[in-house]
Design a protein that fits this description.
Shape: globular
CATH superfamily: Tetracycline Repressor, domain 2
CATH class: Mainly Alpha
Strand content: under 5%
Number of domains: 1
Oligomer: single chain
Number of helices: 9
Distance between the termini: 50 Å
CATH architecture: Orthogonal Bundle
CATH topology: Tetracycline Repressor, domain 2
Radius of gyration: 19 Å
Structural class: mainly alpha
Length: 209
């Protein structure tokens, strides 16, 4: 890669980081392309050369957030603890989403659901979209292999299916439950932290050797 191409990649990554921070802080619907251009101190025409649509920039920001999450979970995987303890920590990690008073991640992913199909319109964006999620999946699947070796996880279940099902549903529920409003008479019973704590306990009891 020559110097010119490196500079283009650096500017692209800078734009994505700025957009990601703006989307998380102010909301996807609120932030417009001009806001990103202004924050990045670039012209709007320059921004559109990198991202012809706001939706493409949103997908790139989503990929960056997912990459950050993959790195965080990767750090958990690298610890010298049992596979069972790693699952416990990963579920705690997703529970941290509801501890943010502004629920920024939950709101972001809730908004992204409206734009996800647009990713397929851009082959480059969609390939990156799939690649980032594939990396996260590969990281998660290493737990099953470790669980077979250290004996901390049940051996009579398909660990790969269990881990992917557990993490996918737990993370989605963490996002959705934190944004759901209930009747005041049920709010204590259906508080996200209590529900997630119970789900976590169910998953851990099921998978423990």
């Amino acid at each position: 890669m020559n110097k010119r191409e490196q500079q283009k990649q650096q500017r692209r990554q800078s734009i994505i980081q700025i957009a990601k921070d703006l989307f998380l802080e102010h909301g996807v619907q609120t932030i417009q392309m001009q806001d990103v251009a202004t924050a990045g101190d670039i012209g709007i025409a320059t921004l559109f050369r990198y991202f012809p649509k706001k939706e493409y920039l949103l997908i790139a920001a989503t990929n960056a957030i997912t990459e950050d999450m993959a790195n965080d979970i990767g750090h958990i995987i690298e610890q010298t603890v049992t596979a069972y303890e790693k699952i416990d920590q990963i579920l705690e990690y997703y529970m941290g989403i509801i501890k943010d008073p502004q629920l920024r991640l939950a709101k972001f992913f809730d908004s992204f659901d409206l734009y996800e199909k647009i990713a397929e319109e851009s082959p480059e964006q969609y390939a990156e979209y799939l690649s980032v999620r594939s990396r996260l999946a590969r990281i998660l699947l290493t737990i099953g292999e470790q669980g077979k070796i250290d004996g901390s996880l049940r051996s009579d279940v398909d660990l790969d299916v269990f881990i992917m099902t557990m993490v996918q549903n737990f993370s989605i529920f963490a996002y959705k439950s934190s944004l759901t409003k209930h009747d005041s008479n049920l709010s204590t019973l259906l508080s996200p932290d209590k529900q997630l704590t119970m789900m976590k306990d169910v998953f851990l009891r099921y998978i423990k050797a």
